[in-house]
Structure formats: C-alpha cells, structure tokens
Design brief:
There is one protein chain. By secondary structure, this protein is α+β, with helices and mostly antiparallel strands. The strands form 3 sheets. A 5-stranded mixed beta sheet has the order 1-2-6-8-7, with helices on both faces. α1 crosses α7 and α5 crosses α7.
C-alpha cells in the first residue's frame, strides 16, 4: 500500500508497505534463524507458539522457495503489494503455474503444480494460525515509521535520505550503488521510479531488485537490540570450507550427485570418514541429499556456493 510519494528533480520515490512481503520475510527468518541474529528473541518466543508441523513445513519448503526469498518477488507486483494478506494470497493462487515459473526461472528453478499449491497452503495456514496477530501490530508501527522517514527525506533531500537506508548503499548525483559481494550500479536517469518499503525481518540483508525501470529498496526497521555476534551459519560455512578433504568432496560433486560409497572409492577414504565430512557439509548447506533406491545421493548446492563471498562480505561490511 502506498504511504507517500516524493519527487526531487527527475527522481520519483514511492514509499510503500506490503503486508505480504513482511509475512514472507518472517518465514525466511524461520528458515534460517541462525543468520538473522537481530530476530533471535522473536524466534525464541514464537517457537512455542507455532505448531511443530507448521514450522517443519516452512523449513522443508525453504528448499523449494529459496528459503522463501523467491515468493517475496510476488509481493512487489501490483495489486498484491496493496492488498491485505488473505486477498493477496487469493490473487497469487489464481496465477497459472506458467506465471509462477516465470518468477522461478529468474532463479534457474522450476516448480510443479503440487508444489505451488503446497506453498500457498503453507502461507495461508501460517497467516491464519500465527501471523494474523503479528501483522496487526507490525502494520501500523511500520506505516508510522515510514511516514517519519518521509519527513526526514523531505528535510535532508531524497539522495541524502536514501543513502542512509543501509550502510552498503552509496548514492551520488548519477548512480545508486549497492556494495554486496560485487557492486550493483543503477543509473538514476534511467529509473522511472524508486519504491522504498520497510521490514522488521530483513537484517542483515540489503534487499533490492530492478524490474521494468523501477528499483525496489527495503530498509531495515529494528525492533530488537542489534546483535553483533557472528552468525552461526557463517561459522558453519567457514568450518566446512576449512578442510582439504571437504573441498575435494565438493569438487567431486561439481557435475553430478555422488554416494558415500562412490566418494570413498574416488578419494581413497573410508565410508565412515566420508560420512563425517558429509554431515559437516550438510550442516553448512553446501550440499543436499536425496534418497535414490538403496543409496543416499549427495549433490552440491550451487546457490550456497555462489553466495559464499556475499555471506562473508555481508558480515564484515555490515
């Protein structure tokens, strides 16, 4: 929903709030709580409130939804961003499987009709059983916060205000630059509009994307004291990579899945030794496993490999 609009020179900025985005962002935190330390207290509190089966399904479908980051893309589309959560879910459910996979293909993924229906059902249950009460508190709070930000932008100027959205966001007269594991540059004169929304769940991420000359930014609104600890998932990742044998195992999987037995044979190690290394790699989410007949097959998680530099950069440059 639109909260406000500002214009400075040729730059148009819309301030908005999407209830659907905030709900899906919270599901992302449930999937990877070890990465979102600023929401650790919230996770501890909800663990006893949400049924175990629902928590299990949210995390299970994290594999299919990119830890729920992929469905977030729907929350930016009109009219979904302007609707309450039940209405937005009803509209998204009407979309064809082809329309869903147009979004999924941006992430080099594809889903089935059954998976699409299960994703919708999980979101509906999560909203009805838990997030209904959460959004009743968060929505007026975030809208009020966004309005205060608009006043700040009016006093300081749009470019100066936008530069304060995140520590890794740089803005000059000609470009918006996102400093992640690499720099993302956007020419201001080529953008029709910038849409700025807010979330209490995204820290430490810097979320942004461009679609049809519209740049979407999400600023962090903190509800808890900032946690300066090292995320557990980063520790697990670096631990997994800090061993020569585990690196060789990853290289063995670069083209096809492998079993414990085949890895033991190719690396001249015992199956017990390989199993210990696979357990560490699975915990770091660098590999995935799937049963095929009598064997458990392990394959490399290419998304996790791609994001290794980003996770390290995100913590150091936070």
């Amino acid at each position: 929903m639109n909260v406000g609009f500002l214009r400075e020179n040729e730059l148009n900025v819309e301030f908005a709030f999407s209830p659907l985005f905030e709900m899906i962002a919270s599901m992302h935190v449930i999937c990877v709580p070890e990465h979102h330390l600023d929401r650790r207290k919230w996770m501890e509190e909800i663990s006893d409130k949400i049924p175990h089966d629902l928590l299990h399904n949210i995390r299970k479908y994290g594999h299919i939804t990119g830890d729920w980051l992929i469905p977030m893309d729907f929350s930016d589309f009109s009219p979904y961003k302007d609707l309450c959560i039940p209405d937005a879910l009803a509209e998204i459910e009407k979309l064809s499987l082809h329309q869903w996979n147009e979004v999924y293909e941006l992430y080099d993924k594809i889903i089935s009709w059954e998976e699409k229906n299960n994703i919708i059902e999980i979101m509906k249950i999560y909203y009805e059983m838990f997030f209904y009460n959460e959004i009743n508190f968060l929505q007026p709070f975030l809208i009020h916060t966004i309005k205060r930000k608009i006043n700040m932008f009016m006093e300081e100027g749009l470019l100066n205000g936008m530069a304060k959205i995140h520590e890794r966001l740089e803005i000059n007269e000609n470009k918006i630059i996102f400093h992640k594991n690499k720099d993302y540059n956007f020419d201001l004169d080529k953008l029709d509009k910038v849409v700025i929304t807010a979330s209490t769940f995204i820290s430490p991420h810097l979320l942004m994307h461009e679609d049809k000359n519209i740049l979407y930014l999400t600023m962090l609104v903190s509800l808890e004291e900032r946690n300066e600890a090292v995320p557990d998932d980063l520790i697990d990742l670096l631990k997994a990579l800090g061993d020569g044998t585990r690196l060789r195992i990853l290289r063995e999987m670069k083209t096809e899945a492998a079993s414990t037995q085949s890895l033991a044979l190719s690396l001249n190690l015992t199956e017990a030794g390989i199993s210990k290394h696979l357990k560490v790699l699975c915990k770091a989410r660098l590999i995935e496993k799937k049963r095929q007949g009598n064997f458990m097959m392990y394959s490399i998680n290419k998304d996790s490999i791609d994001y290794i530099p980003y996770k390290l950069y995100e913590f150091i440059m936070r």
